[in-house]
Amino acid sequence: MAEQLGSLARTHTCGALRPADVGQNAVLLGWVHRVRDLGSLLFLDVRDRHGLTQVIVEGDDALLERTKRLRSEFVVAVLGEVERRSPDTINLGLPTGEVEVRAKEVRILNEAKTPPFSIAEDMNVSEETRLKYRYLDLRRPQLQHNIGLRHRITMALRKYFDENGFYEIETPILTKSTPEGARDFLVPSRVHPGEFYALPQSPQIFKQILMIAGFDRYVQIARCFRDEALRADRQLEFTQVDLEMSFATPPLVFEIVEGALAACFKEIGVEVPLPFRRMQYAEAIAKYGSDKPDLRFGMEIQDFGPLFADSPFGIFREAVAHGGTIRGFVIPGAAKFSRREVDELVEQAKALGAAGLIYARHTAEGVQASAKAIGEEGIRKVLDAAGGAKEDLLVLASGAADAASKVLGQLRLQVAKKQNLIPEGKWELTWVTDFPLFDWNSDEKRWDSVNHPFTAPREEDLPMLESDPGKVLAKAYDVILNGWELGGGSIRIHDRDTQAKVFSLLGMSEEDAKNRFGFFLESLEYGTPPHGGLALGLDRICALLAGETSIREVIPFPKTTQAVDLMCDAPSTVDPRQLRELHIKNT
Ligand code: ASP
Q1: Which residues pair with 441 in a beta bridge?
Q2: What is the pTM of this model?
Q3: How many H-runs (helices) and E-runs (strands) does the chain carry?
Q4: Tens-digit pLDDT profile for residues 401-438
Q5: Of 82, 401, 523, 572, which alpha carbon lies 20 to 30 A from 187's?
């Protein structure tokens, strides 16, 4: 039977006691982490969010008898005296490891069923079981740490933005669609039959309207909802640190965001050098084959096209003659690769979409390439141009410029991972800027926004908006860490006509634009300041700073990759009466 806490008050957390406390009485409240019953002596490890403290029960037969019932995860109150541990039992791996509490009284505040897994660091349990019993999983020190870190990062961000003149302002959850390229979650209205609210994909329109409303600087730790195809590390709802500034220029946004990220890094004791690198989208694609370049290692993609313009190797010569390129990169230390290893590399490249992969290297006998037709002189020339060492291997692929780089970019990452060429503990932050404004959607025969429809084109590209939309670059920027996109944003369109023109280029009729965004187009006509902003993915920042590979490790109650909440079994069916009230017929 459970005993009462009564007036017993905690004097110390389970992570607090130190040798200086020896001789004091302490009251600890927490969970039994482990019991070791040595007959006339019993050790209890008592755990709470702050740590573990060893409790010893000895000499009091009645107490000993009662505490023998204790099992892992029982909730206890322990009152006792702090003692120094005998030298042979000191545990320096534990902050409280030099002391223990000699129990005078132990109250069992609640019992616990045997948990389906032990609350330990190194457990081998399926994610399904962990998520079903998330309240037990969350008790594990690692998740306690992660959620604590998330709290500290959030607090640091709030403080930082406050100090920089931002107001934290809430925007609606039940609202009208704000497009970010995903499907909306819809909420049927009971009082307006046949009408729906949309959950926000982002607060984009509202934050822009807040600029029109004169709030100057806005920030929100905002939950966003996107009904996207299931992908490994995506959640249907996720958190953004969403911000917007009036009279913003890209350098001003960069400065503010760099300061915010530096404040986050400080929470893990890392000082990141400011300002971050800046790289145009076109350069990122050419050199790294990705708009999220991982800059922790080299192996940059180079263009060797001109070297093959009159090459005896027909495939490359022809590719160049037809406007294609020959691109490649150097794999450090890979000249020694065996036949099987280079064959694997070629297969990998083909699986990524390359027509083939040619390699070249120095050998004891001279130089060698997988396409002999390149000729010794040709091979030497390209190896010299690549600038690698004798121990390295050069790989080459042909194709249209961006396509070749994108394949090589993926190969670069796969090889670097496999060959352990990515240094640990490095934080490489960069801005990627000047994205294209539009992407051609060949299925629907219209342009799509690369970012979202509120992104401003570069002024110098405005004249091409109608004549050559594919060439227009945007005042858009992403911030990248170690190959992960931490966030993105842009300077916005702030005049009605350009905004209406962009809607029309996206295939929206005037009628359609009016229905969906009429209120916004109208608001733009009442004195809209130039403005811009960005949103950072809080889940991803926390995961990276916690050293986790999945955002599910920093979200207290995540859904599975199948979009299911296993703990409360959502989504679930509902009462037919509820559906009737919402005017919904289940087909
Ligand atoms: N609303 C954008 C997003 O959710 C961010 C921004 O442009 O500020 O990605």
Answers
A1: 446
A2: 0.94
A3: 16, 22
A4: 888 999 999 999 999 999 999 999 999 999 999 999 99
A5: 523
